[in-house]
Design a protein that fits this description.
The chain has 427 residues and is α+β, with helices and mostly antiparallel strands. 42% of the residues lie in helices and 19% in strands. The chain contains 17 helices and 13 strands. The protein has a 6-stranded mixed sheet, with helices on both faces. Strands 9-13-10-12-11 form a 5-stranded mixed sheet, sandwiched between helices.
Length: 427
C-alpha cells in the first residue's frame, strides 16, 4: 500500500504533489492558492465564484456540460486563508478533467457584464448568511490577519469591487509560485508525465507584487486578561458560548494538543459533552476546533444553551477544563488516539479528503507531511505526559478568551463579566 506523498517544484515555481493508489476507481485534482492580502474583503471569494461564471474560454453552461459529460464533480471553496478548486473523476476521464481545471492558469479576463451577473449571486449569499456568535468571535480573534476578514465580505465591499480589481486579483493569486496542484487516487505514470509537462508550460511570473506576504500576528496572543472577554446581546432566549485558548505551537506539541482537544470537546464521548449534554442536559450539541497557522494556534469549544442555564453551563464547563489540567490518564488518551493513528489510513480511500489534507495542511499551513505512515507515527509517538503538559500550558487564563451572546435583560453584561472573572481564576 502506497502512503508516500511526492513533491515536485517546477521551474516556474508551481508546486506539484501527488500520491498514487492503484486500487481505487477515481482520482482528484486539487488546485490550492494562498489568499493574498485582500484590499477589499471578499474579493478572493468573488474570484472563486467568477471561475464558475467563465473558466478561461469555457462559459458557465459549457463548463457544467463538460463536467457532466465526463461524470466529474467540480467544486470551488474559499477558506479564510486559501482558495481550493478541485475535480473528482473516474481515472478513465482524468486527462479531460485536467484539461478543464488547469484552465484556471490561462491568461484571460472577465468582462464587466459577467462580473455584474455574479455579483447578484454573491449578494444573495451575503444577505442569506447567518452571522453566528462563533463567526463573530473568529473575526474578533483574528482581526488584522487574513482570517479576520469575512470570507464573503459585506454588501458595501461587494459594491466596491471593480472588474479590473477582480481580474488583477485572479492573476496574482493563481500565479504559479503561489499555488499547489495535488493529484490523488488512481492514475498512471503517463498521466502524471502529461500533467507535469503541461504545467511546466505555464509562464513563471515573478513580477506580482502581491506575493510579498506580510508577517501577521494575533493581538494579545498568550497575553489575555478579563478585558479580552466579549459579551454580546441576543434576544432569542438562548445563549451562545465560545471558549477559546491560544495555543503556542513553539511551546506545545501540536499533535498532543489535537488529541487533548478531542478528549475534552470533540464528539459525544468527550468530557465536556458527557457533562453538559448527558449529565446536565444543558446543551444538544458541542462543537469547536483546533487550528494552527504561521502566526497563531487556537483551540475552541462552542455550544448554545437556554439563557437560564448559561451561568451553570459555564461553571460546569470550566470545572471540566480545570480538572483536565490536573491529570489526564492513559484511558482518556485511548478514547481518542485511534482516530489520529489507524484512522489516518481511511484517507487513502477518499481521494478528495486526502487531496485536501495535502493541499491544506502541507502546502497552505506548511506542515510537512511526507507520508500517511509518518503522519500516523507523529500521533502514535505522543505520550500521556505530553498531553498533560499541553493541558497545563494551554488551559491558562493568559490564553483564554470567553465570548458569549445573551439576553442582557436576563443577565446583565456586568453580571456576566463578573462570572467570567471568577471562571478565569479556576485556571
Amino acid at each position: 500500500m502506497n502512503t508516500k506523498i511526492k513533491t515536485n517544484i517546477l521551474n516556474n515555481g508551481l508546486t506539484v504533489k501527488y500520491i498514487k493508489n492503484d486500487y481505487l476507481h477515481s482520482a482528484n485534482i486539487g488546485i490550492y492558492a494562498r489568499k493574498l492580502p485582500e484590499k477589499i474583503c471578499g474579493i478572493a471569494h468573488m474570484t472563486e465564484h467568477m471561475i464558475f461564471r467563465r473558466l478561461s474560454d469555457v462559459p458557465q453552461q459549457q463548463l457544467y456540460f463538460a463536467t457532466d459529460k465526463i461524470g466529474a464533480t467540480l467544486k470551488g471553496t474559499t477558506y479564510t486563508d486559501f482558495i481550493c478548486i478541485d475535480i473528482t473523476v473516474s481515472q478513465t476521464k482524468l486527462r479531460e478533467a485536467f484539461e478543464l481545471i488547469s484552465k484556471v492558469f490561462d491568461d484571460f479576463k472577465w468582462l464587466s457584464q459577467e462580473v455584474n451577473a455574479e455579483k447578484r449571486v454573491v449578494r444573495r449569499q451575503i444577505e442569506d448568511r447567518y452571522n453566528s456568535l462563533y463567526s463573530r468571535a473568529d473575526r474578533e480573534y483574528y482581526s488584522g490577519t487574513p482570517k479576520g476578514c469575512p470570507i464573503m465580505g459585506n454588501i458595501s465591499d461587494l459594491n466596491r469591487m471593480s472588474t479590473k480589481s477582480i481580474n488583477n486579483y485572479r492573476e496574482n493569486v493563481f500565479a504559479p509560485n503561489n499555488c499547489c496542484v495535488v493529484l490523488t487516487g488512481n492514475f498512471n505514470d503517463s498521466d502524471l508525465s502529461y500533467f507535469t509537462e503541461k504545467l511546466k508550460q505555464i509562464p513563471a511570473d515573478n513580477t506580482k507584487s502581491g506575493l510579498a506576504f506580510a508577517k501577521y500576528a494575533v493581538k494579545d496572543f498568550s497575553d489575555r486578561s478579563a478585558e479580552s472577554d466579549k459579551i454580546y446581546n441576543s434576544n432569542d432566549g438562548f445563549s451562545d458560548v465560545c471558549i477559546s485558548f491560544d495555543v503556542d505551537g513553539r511551546q506545545v506539541n501540536r499533535y498532543a494538543a489535537e488529541i487533548l482537544h478531542s478528549i475534552i470537546g470533540f464528539g459525544v464521548t468527550s468530557k465536556l459533552s458527557q457533562v453538559l449534554r448527558e449529565r446536565l442536559g444543558f446543551i444538544s450539541e458541542l462543537s469547536g476546533n483546533i487550528e494552527f497557522s504561521e502566526y497563531a494556534g487556537r483551540m475552541t469549544f462552542e455550544f448554545d444553551t437556554a439563557c437560564e442555564n448559561l451561568k451553570q453551563s459555564l461553571k460546569a464547563a470550566f470545572e471540566v477544563i480545570a480538572k483536565a489540567k490536573r491529570k489526564l490518564t492513559k484511558e482518556d488518551m485511548q478514547s481518542s488516539i485511534v482516530f489520529y493513528t489507524d484512522n489516518q489510513y481511511r484517507l487513502l480511500d477518499d481521494v478528495r479528503e486526502l487531496n485536501f489534507l495535502i493541499g491544506w495542511r502541507d502546502f497552505i499551513e506548511g506542515e510537512r507531511i511526507d507520508s500517511i505512515d509518518e503522519l500516523s507515527e507523529r500521533y502514535k509517538s505522543v505520550t500521556v505526559n505530553e498531553i498533560n503538559e499541553a493541558a497545563s500550558k494551554i488551559f491558562s487564563s493568559k490564553n483564554l478568551v470567553i465570548t458569549v451572546s445573551n439576553d442582557n435583560k436576563k443577565h446583565s453584561k456586568d453580571e456576566l463579566f463578573s462570572v467570567c472573572k471568577v471562571l478565569r481564576k479556576e485556571l
